[in-house]
Amino acid sequence: MSSIEAGGVQPARDGSVRVVLVDDHAIFRSGLKADLDSKISVVGEAGTVEQAIAVIAQTRPDVVLLDVHLPGGLGGGGREVIAGSNALLGTTRFLALSVSDAAEDVVAVIRAGARGYVTKTISGAEITDAVLRVAGGDAVFSPRLAGFVLDAFGTAPADIADDELDRLSARELEVMRLIARGYSYKEVAKELFISIKTVETHVSAVLRKLQLSSRHELTKWAAERRLL
Amino acid sequence: MSTPVLRPPLVRSADRVIAGVCAGLAMHLGWPVRYLRMGMVVATLAGGAGLVFYAWLWIMVPTADESAKRNARRPASPIAPAVSGPLPAQSTWSNSDIGLPPGPMGYRAPPGSSVASAFTWQDPAGEAVFTDPTWQSGLPAGVPASGSAQSVSGMVRPVNGDSQAWFRFRRMPYAKEILLGIGLLLAGAILIARLLGVDVPLGTLIPAAAILGGASIAWMQLDETRRAGIVDKAKANQAGGWVRLAAGLALVVAGVLVMVSGSGSWEQTWLALLASVAVLGGVAVVLLPWGLKFWRDLEAERAGRVRATERAEIAAHLHDSVLQTLALIQRRAGNEHDVVRLARAQERELRSWLYRDEGKDIGNLSERIKAVAAEVEDALGQAVEVVNVGDTAMTERHEALVQASREAMLNAARHGGGSVSVYVEASDKEVEVFVKDRGAGFDLHSVPDDRLGVRESIIGRMKRHGGTAVINSGPEGTEVRLGLPAVAAEQGETTS
CB A113 to CB B3 under 8 A? Predict the structure, then answer.
């Protein structure tokens, strides 16, 4: 875990962030590539689980844009790619990208180690922003993911320290609520009179809880909640 | 990292020495195959335990080919897994629990008819799909379904109508108790008749009763395991079923023997019983692998049929929705606004179809808000994203909240120019709705008095129903916050 928390990634020589696109639709990949900013250079593409693991191991990118549903492998999709690239988790960050709104898909890939989740319908500028944020070591939460988190962890703040991993602190709840309401990190910071850096710290803490909480309800909840 | 270990399924490997059991097990566990083989040999020396284990796995574990045939292959499309994955399939099956005719085959077919007919006279999967009301409502009236769907449904329906009668018969309350009562009454009558001096041929009656009783126990069992197998693939409570099956079998065998031997001498009967059990055991040993293979083939075939009907359903749906929309989009390719609106509407429709939750109550607040958001999206062509946490049942006050939210969404979509974020949080204490846009914002005091939109439809409406409405507008956008506390007097209205 500590390896993931480690600080910023060294950018490529020309200052751009090196990215691998993993999606089984070639049309979507090319569209996405055209949409991405010049600050991002795409160094590899893959369409299946096996290809993805190979390309990631070979190119060692800063960020992998990873579709949740992928053919190949043992049927585990994006989760399997992350598991297969376990050795690189310290230097390579994964950003999940999906058309699926199903909570179980999202939660599974986040728990496998992805640093964020965005839907495929967001604009190129937003994806660029998310990639840069993930490359900088932050977590990226869409309003929907924040909603999932609130639903899974409950909206009551933690009062005692012993179930620290299973509950969100009052501040983290506030941040998640604002993100679910459609606030950007900047707007959250302004609303709560805190710095953007503090917002990012809170979001990373929530991500860590989401990944590490052994709360069995979390998995059960995700499995039961197929619709959202 | 708490990543769960992904294990390949346990199948017999093609790379084999005897039957591929060790190689398959090694692949499943991720251990070196050599150690497993050595372990198996060592265990064999320990009283043959390894041999028995090997044989057991040989029988129970399918080969890689069989396994692949049985499991639905995951299609490459990112949306299709949600349709053909195990979960939705199971939910359609459990629906069929009520519609399925659970009558034991003994009621329907004479006991002499072959077992195979009992497996084929109804197709649980096909029927489940076609009695599913959501499927029928998914097709607009008058739109022809795809050919294959029609032919399948035509084939199944007669069985379906017939089955309803059996369903009613079987659901007769206390059927078991009534049967038991009748049996006891008969026994009592026989006893009284004997006391009165009537000669009752007990020597024939008791074995006959034993045969009847045993057979009915066994048949009921057949029926119930079938139902359990359909409803719950895990077959959790099969142990009790096997005991009942064995008891039924024993009763029948004993009855037949007593009847055939006729004498009633215990010694003879006992010996004959032993011999027949031995014969039955031998037959079972010989036939078990055949039976297993037969059962697996049946399962594979049934799974194939389920897939075929699912495919037909998907094809019909895609034809009615996605293909039509794509055609519309092509014809309106020049108008960007229309294209985006069509694509959004189609996405919404497809999403709700793919991820629909059958157990979910449509009358709940979150669904109402989503429906209203869809309305606004259609009317104004701006994306309205709804995120909800918790849920609650609708009341009159919640309807007011929904209407106020609708007004807020309309304003946001009209003046905000960009996507609108809606967040609904329902707890036991209150329901909150936030509607946010990224428009230029406005000053509430500068809104002319004759404009009723904000003042009346949002703020006034919320106040009348004991709620609050706060409008926060700035250069970066406007957010409308609506709150509706749960009133203590209206107990039980919140479910979340």
Answer: yes
